[in-house]
Design goal:
This protein is an all-alpha fold and 316 residues long. It contains 14 helices and no strands. The radius of gyration is 21 Å and the shape is globular.
């Protein structure tokens, strides 16, 4: 019944148009998130952030994938067995810099010691998780007509070329900008155009469109004059206007008219809860070993377990 009303309110052709337009907002959101990342923080990050990030990412993957596969094979009939727990576990284990930074900003603890540790940990984890997802997507989506080696080489070349070429280009733009003066609008619009151009290139190598936006965002130096100008220009249209439409369009894809057995629903819910529980424990325990008080360590584990629009985009 709900699906019938959705079709009346949003006919299928209009849904495609709306989804395409809203995806632009999601790409701009990912781009500005990359712009706000300070990659130099990785070199300044102490052993605590590295330990929390690596253990908090690796342990859920190593534990949850075999566990979920075993549960599915033992409990579900063949027609409901997914046999690809990687596709379930990886989105659930993603720790997004944009989501965590937004949460810390809302809680007004962005500049606290706990906030800085969480931001350092999520920066390392976000880079690692995106690398794992990109490589895993090649193996999961490839077929007999595609050369996995060629796709891997293309992905590596893309990851090397974007920062190697565009990072110096961004500093060239900054040098061409007089001190205290705003960046020329022509340069800003050229960078925005490159967001979509690199997104198209990412699609050609069988990656998500947003990979190009994220990689270019990392190539932009954080802060004024260029990084601040791009964030200021894109914040309204990307975050405030198009992004809510993107979330709405993503939720419209949910089909509540489908009925599954109670066993399927229970196992799916258990899998999700199990993954998040493992994530919280995997982030809390290394924090305790780093002599962080239990209350702060548990809070850190919960912060690094938060999910938001990035996860909605992954599932979409």
């Amino acid at each position: 019944m709900l699906d019938k009303y959705k079709r009346k309110l949003f006919p299928f052709p209009s849904q495609d148009t709306l989804a395409t337009i809203s995806s632009i907002g999601y790409a701009l959101f990912i781009f500005t998130s990359g712009v706000q990342m300070d990659l130099s923080m990785i070199t300044r990050t102490g052993h605590r952030a590295w330990a929390i990030a690596i253990i908090g990412l690796a342990v859920p993957i190593l534990i949850c994938i075999p566990t979920i596969i075993s549960i599915e094979r033992l409990s579900l009939p063949v027609e409901y067995q997914i046999f690809n727990a990687t596709a379930i576990v990886l989105p659930e284990t993603v720790i997004s810099f944009a989501v965590v930074a937004s949460l810390l900003n809302e809680l007004k603890i962005l500049n606290s010691e706990l906030g800085r540790l969480a931001l350092s940990s999520v920066l390392v984890s976000d880079i690692l998780s995106k690398t794992i997802i990109c490589v895993a997507s090649i193996f999961m989506d490839a077929n007999e007509n595609q050369n996995i080696f060629v796709l891997l080489v293309s992905l590596i070349a893309f990851g090397i070329f974007v920062p190697l070429f565009f990072r110096p280009a961004m500093f060239w733009i900054i040098k061409r900008t007089a001190e205290g003066r705003p960046v020329n609008d022509g340069y800003v619009y050229a960078v925005i155009t490159m967001v979509f151009a690199l997104g198209w290139v990412a699609v050609q190598i069988h990656q998500e469109f947003i990979l190009g936006a994220f990689m270019l965002g990392l190539a932009v130096p954080e802060g004024p004059p260029l990084g601040s100008a791009l964030v200021k220009k894109l914040h309204f249209f990307g975050n405030c206007f198009f992004l809510p439409i993107f979330v709405t369009c993503s939720m419209m894809k949910a089909d509540f008219s489908k009925h599954f057995s109670s066993k399927v629903v229970m196992i799916t819910a258990f899998s999700s809860l199990f993954i998040h529980l493992v994530k919280v424990i995997a982030c809390t325990i290394p924090a305790l070993f780093c002599k962080i008080p239990f209350k702060d360590a548990l809070t850190l584990g919960l912060i690094l377990n938060v999910q938001g629009v990035v996860e909605v985009g992954i599932y979409g």
